Amino acid sequence: MNKMRYLLWMALPILVFACKKSDDKTNQAAIDKAILLQYIAIDSTITYDSTSTGLYYSIADTGTGTITPHLNSYITVHYKGSYKDGVVFEQTSGSPIKGFLKQFIAGWQEGVPFIRKGGKIKLLIPSALAYGTTGSGSIPANTVLIFEIELVNVE
Q: What gap in Å lies between CA 32 and CA 107, rounded to an integer?
């Protein structure tokens, strides 16, 4: 019986930590959702759809191509990435960027397949589908991101 108590006592911190992490993710998802809904409310002229993961998107142009991108597609895009306050943190200038869709953040992986070649989409990405709890470069942890993407080509 003492061995069982010992094992339970040793497992308790792990269980508490795991529950705390789950609560943190749930809380951050709720915070992100509130931020995104507030962003959407500011300009009610744009209609957004959402996915079960918390991604919001608005398709400005579905495109004319016949190929729908998938994770292994090689894509060419122009984009602008900004914070909710409109401050641009990165964008293409002149030449588009190229890469496999699976190399981009989860929000892009989920959102870009809604359009085809020549299509344009605006993605409102919760932090879990962007750079999560770690951030990246100048992008802080737990930051929602806004991307305007034009799919120039898909192979």
A: 13
